[in-house]
Amino acid sequence: MASELNRRFVARLRLAGTLVIVGLGVQVATLLEAHPYTFLSFLIGGTGLVLAGVIAFIWAWVAQ
Amino acid sequence: MSLTIMASIAFALVTVLVIVMIMVRPSLAAGAGGKTLALVSLAVLPAVATTFGMNAHLEASKSTEFCLSCHAMAPYGESLKLDDLAHVPAAHFQNSRVPRDHACYSCHTTYTLYGDAAAKWKGLRHLYVNYIGTIPEKIELYEPFKNRECLHCHGGARTFEENEFHIEYRRELATNETSCLECHDLAHEVEKLGELERWNPDGE
Fold it and tell me: What is the ipTM of this complex?
């Protein structure tokens, strides 16, 4: 089954997954404390990385 | 830790697990079903997790701790501890007329991260001013304090409704023509904090 997948698609899929995981990790870490800094980190860092990951995934899908 | 935060963390961790599964075995993303699985795990679930997380953060932004974590708000937090119940915020805080962990948000709802879009915008602006901009020397409300913030608790309460002054000014109070603060005029007296005693419930 894996051979059916384009190698480039898999690489992009992994890049997207890594970005989303790191983004979600940042989001989870910020949820541990209620502070304006953690809110901004969630908004800019966490959400930014998740968004980049989702865009990378869509790019991988469209480019395939 | 609140239930909202725990649910958000749990959802994010489940999302991470599903993504790791796909990254370890990319063959799962092959075929129409696999593509759908990849779309759900790499786009839909992260979007839902982010929405949950944002909701948890906005909920947390209602807390007194969150408001007072900005240095400029510290004197306003201190004014809640004044040992003079003529001071309206102190009387409300010390007598638990407002929840102590949501004391600020109970009366100030129109410029917070939790409120409507206009309130959120003002709340974000406060963060900008606090960390990047210049904090004004004297912090003032955007507009005169609205009676709505008082009446959503006091309206209908016997002590309010049966008070002779409230009866006389009922219409003016309902329409903001007369402000509650015209009589109850000791709000956050931050410039006089140095002269006033503090409430010490522990007697230390």
Answer: 0.88
